[in-house]
Amino acid sequence: MTKVAALLEGRGLRPSHQRVRIYEVLAATKAHPSAEDLWQALQPELPTLSRTTVYNTLASFLGLGLAKPIYIQGEELRYDADMESHGHFRCRSCGRVYDFPFGEAEYRPRLDPGFVPELVQLACVGLCSGCAKPREG
Ligand SMILES: [Zn+2]
Ligand SMILES: [Zn+2]
Fold this sequence. Notes:
Elements lengths: L2 H8 L6 H12 L6 H8 L8 H13 L4 E3 L7 E3 L5 E6 L5 E5 L21 E4 L2 H4 L5
Parallel strand pairs: 3-5
Antiparallel strand pairs: 1-2, 3-4
Helix pairs in contact: 2-3, 3-4
The structure holds zinc ion (2 copies).
């Protein structure tokens, strides 16, 4: 059994070949793909993989703590298999999403008593260093 198969099985998810490949592709990228991106990336290799399977598998990953959702207003949900605490910077010009370090201790939501936070995300929007460069000429 591969490491990824063992990881999925350890969380109670049957490690089918499709699920293992979805996790491996997600874990190997820093691009924070959407379900559609992942489905397209896996098409050449798994032509029988359906979009529904990708969506359902990603929903399982979120529920089991194997991936984190990234909410960007007006965009399809993106996914990240990096479970370490970090923030996301989205470039409004090229659309890329970059990671940046941020410790949970640095950002604590001030909630009224009784609220139970389950997900705290730090998101920045702006221009990445490549896009912020002044144009030549
Ligand atoms: Zn950019
Ligand atoms: Zn990330």
